[in-house]
């Protein structure tokens, strides 16, 4: 309203080779934001009417997309070209608006509440799959309190160590998005279709599955390579 906001750039600004490779690091983050496959079956089992699952998935993706678009829009409105990779980092100082410190605190508290609500859902699937990998022939973990607490404590300790030593959540999202998220979102579903145990996959389904695997592996390789390149490029720049 005050005329201080520049026109947003519709195309990325490429300064050097590092900025070009950095384009590929955004794809894994976007992929991670839409990965919910691992929670579908547990949630479906809790529904009285499992046929509602498709509607729930559509509404959830629509809601998430709306939140992402709103966040990106207001991030540009507030910070313009100074918007950081992790927009939360922009709320660490004076925003140049009234009640700036209050807004910073509200953002921190809201993100903390978000993590508290999301983490149990993700951790449930993680614990269940790790237990199945380590103890494939044991009784379900829900009926073994000793194993339940042991696996939980071990995983929580590992996660806490990672959260303490990873300097930026953006770095974590880059690597997990380029590896685990790509596998969960694209490679594993395509592999299940190719295995075709029920015998219902068509020739077109198999072609799409191979295409998904090829694109997923290709983009993952480029993303991981660009992540590593960016890290070494930054380190080299700091050293020089």
TrEMBL record:
Topology in the lipid bilayer: Multi-pass membrane protein
Domain Amino acid transporter transmembrane: from-to ranges: 16-223
Record key words, sorted: Amino-acid transport, Membrane, Transmembrane, Transmembrane helix, Transport
Localization of this protein: Membrane
GO molecular function: L-amino acid transmembrane transporter activity
Entry superkingdom: Eukaryota
Stretches that traverse the bilayer: 61-80, 109-128, 148-166, 172-195, 207-232
Pfam families assigned: Aa_trans
Classification via PANTHER family: AMINO ACID TRANSPORTER, AMINO ACID TRANSPORTER AVT6A-LIKE
Protein's name in the database: Amino acid transporter transmembrane domain-containing protein
Organism name: Gossypium schwendimanii
Lineage: Eukaryota, Viridiplantae, Streptophyta, Embryophyta, Tracheophyta
């Amino acid at each position: 309203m005050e005329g201080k906001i520049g026109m947003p750039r519709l195309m990325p600004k490429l300064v050097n080779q590092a900025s070009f490779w950095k384009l590929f690091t955004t794809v894994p983050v976007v992929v991670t934001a839409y990965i919910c496959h691992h929670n579908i079956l547990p949630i479906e089992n809790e529904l009285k009417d499992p046929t509602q699952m498709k509607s729930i998935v559509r509404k959830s993706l629509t809601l998430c997309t709306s939140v992402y678009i709103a966040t990106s829009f207001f991030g540009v409105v507030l910070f313009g070209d100074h918007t950081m990779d992790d927009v939360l980092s922009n709320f660490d100082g004076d925003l140049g608006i009234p009640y700036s410190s209050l807004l910073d605190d509200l953002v921190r508290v809201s993100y903390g509440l978000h993590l508290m609500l999301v983490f149990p859902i993700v951790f449930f699937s993680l614990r269940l799959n790790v237990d199945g990998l380590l103890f494939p022939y044991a009784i379900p973990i829900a009926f073994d309190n000793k194993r339940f607490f042991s696996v939980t404590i071990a995983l929580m300790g590992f996660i806490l160590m990672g959260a303490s030593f990873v300097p930026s959540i953006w770095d974590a999202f880059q690597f997990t998005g380029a590896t685990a998220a790509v596998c969960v979102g694209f490679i594993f579903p395509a592999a299940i279709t190719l295995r075709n145990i029920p015998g219902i996959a068509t020739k077109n389904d198999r072609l799409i599955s191979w295409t998904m695997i090829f694109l997923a592996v290709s983009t993952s390789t480029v993303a991981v390579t660009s992540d590593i390149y960016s890290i070494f490029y930054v380190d080299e720049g700091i050293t020089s």
